[in-house]
Specification:
Rossmann fold, 13% strand, 13 strands, 44% helix, alpha/beta, 495 residues, Ferritin, nine-stranded mixed β-sheet, two-stranded antiparallel sheet, 18 helices
Length: 495
């Protein structure tokens, strides 16, 4: 399956309407989604027939995969009657997309798959400029079969890789992708359970929510071993468990599609700016059992946005932190990625928020991440702060991740980097990389991670070595000056 996706990306790169990983991922996504929807509907129709029932298809027959994408005759592609070139483009652009976009307006139930389709295609358009290119892509994707869980698992892996490629493409696409090993370790610590309401206020591609789904649904996802859940539990997992907001249209589209392709047919994802909500109006019924997030940071919010928060600040990360604090239920758990500056800054707003956090919540663990976790699109050093709404903070367990080599784009963070942390955090074991600080020892709510076990030895050179280094540096400087002088007077320095 992966080789097919690679073929498709190579084909799309040659199309005049496609520019970079963001575009080809977007275009592969909507075609994959429609093929997935077709196979899902066929499976549901077969199940209904076995039960002696009639299945009501979501899509009208004219717009189902087998009626326009790839026509078949005797089990083979009907080359003669299948649309191609300009005819195919005209159907997709003038018939198919307007039809799919209309679903959001004609469907009242926001939990329905029909509504989700409308929400997805509201912000999508076909960018493939050449109808013959589109024909090639459709024929390849038609070869993929999504009728069983094993194939769906492969699809989910491939889709994650597409999103990762989009993130690695740099620029603004970094918002789509948080490294999956980091997402997994945060989810493992927060430990979402069936019956929990789980929330991400800045969902991006929904990586956290999908990992939470896998955490609940599978005993072992690699072997496809699922937990034994009742029909009602499965319904709750699909319809009433996952919640999130995303303000960027393409991120929103990718997120909703990612959830559906992973098996969550009705995620409660809203296209909205989380920070526009006044958090002082939140009631317990509006809150969540688990919050998992890597919200945006480094932005500067306007006064209008700041008015929605009891502690005003233009720092985006500080406002998101307040939002998550006020969105957590009693006994709720939260794991959130924050920039290093949030921990050590002690100006009025930062100190006030951290004072509120430590006094009203239990900050039980801070995971210090190495530089380079979010390369290539951000070099900011970050931490993960874990807290629950179960009393105030007493002792904070710190763990510092220390890779044996520097993280790079080609040597990213991986699961092995978190193995020791997962072994020690629950029992709060002291190691070379972990320590505990009592809240009373912390001054001005500077809760930054300063490892007391690290004794960085400063190597002092002898006076003779210092003199020799100076002489060597001076000699190099003199040689360079000679070369510059020779160039200025037009002299051949090799003479």
């Amino acid at each position: 399956m992966e080789s097919k996706i690679n073929r498709i990306t190579d084909i799309l790169r040659r199309d005049d309407g496609i520019s970079g990983a963001m575009h080809y991922t977007e275009q592969i996504s909507w075609i994959l989604f429609l093929k997935f929807l077709n196979d899902l509907e066929e499976t549901k129709n077969d199940d209904a027939q076995l039960d002696g029932e009639i299945y009501n298809f979501v899509l009208d027959e004219k717009f189902r995969w087998g009626s326009w994408a790839v026509l078949k005759a005797n089990g083979k592609i009907d080359v003669i009657n299948s649309k191609s070139g300009e005819d195919l483009l005209e159907f997709v652009n003038k018939d198919l997309f307007p039809y799919l976009k209309s679903f959001k307006n004609i469907t009242e139930n926001p939990k329905s798959i029909k509504y989700k389709i409308g929400a997805i295609f509201e912000f999508l358009d076909n960018r493939i400029a050449n109808g013959h290119t589109l024909r090639e892509v459709l024929d390849i994707i038609d070869e993929m079969d999504f009728h069983n869980n094993s194939d769906l698992y492969q699809l989910s892996l491939i889709y994650e890789k597409l999103l990762k490629d989009m993130g690695s493409d740099g620029g603004n696409s970094g918002e789509f992708y948080t490294p999956r090993p980091l997402i997994k370790v945060i989810t493992d610590v927060v430990n979402p359970k069936i019956g929990d309401k789980i929330y991400d206020p800045a969902v991006g591609s929904c990586g956290f929510l999908i990992e939470a789904y896998n955490h609940i649904r599978y005993e072992n996802i690699e072997t496809n071993k699922q937990r034994d859940l009742s029909t009602e539990q499965l319904r709750f997992l699909s319809e009433d468990t996952f919640f999130g907001n995303e303000k960027t249209p393409l991120s929103y589209v990718m997120g909703v599609m990612n959830m559906i392709l992973h098996g969550v047919e009705s995620p409660n994802i809203s296209k909205t700016n989380t920070l526009t909500r006044d958090i002082r109006g939140l009631e317990e019924k509006d809150r969540y059992d688990c919050i998992l997030a890597n919200p945006p940071f480094g932005g500067k919010e306007k006064d209008q946005i700041q008015q929605n928060f009891p502690i005003k600040s233009n720092a985006t990360e500080l406002l998101f932190l307040q939002h998550m604090m006020n969105s957590l239920k009693l006994q709720g758990r939260c794991g959130v990625v924050i920039p290093e500056g949030v921990l050590f800054q002690t100006n009025n707003a930062f100190q006030a928020v951290k004072k509120d956090l430590c006094e009203r919540f239990n900050v039980h663990t801070i995971l210090s991440l190495p530089s380079g976790v979010f390369l290539p699109y951000s070099g900011v050093k970050t931490n993960v702060i874990f807290f629950d709404r179960n009393g105030s903070t007493s002792d904070i367990f710190y763990y510092e991740v220390n890779p044996s080599s520097k993280l790079t784009k080609n040597k990213p963070i991986n699961n092995s980097h978190f193995e020791e942390f997962l072994d020690v955090w629950k029992d709060r074991k002291i190691t070379d990389n972990s320590w505990i600080v009592n809240i009373n020892e912390i001054k001005d709510f500077d809760i930054s991670a300063k490892n007391p076990n690290r004794n960085d030895v400063i190597e002092h050179k002898s006076p003779i070595e210092l003199v020799e280094n100076i002489k060597l540096n001076n000699a190099e400087i003199n040689d360079l000056m000679d070369e510059i002088e020779a160039i200025l007077i037009g002299k051949d320095i090799n003479e």
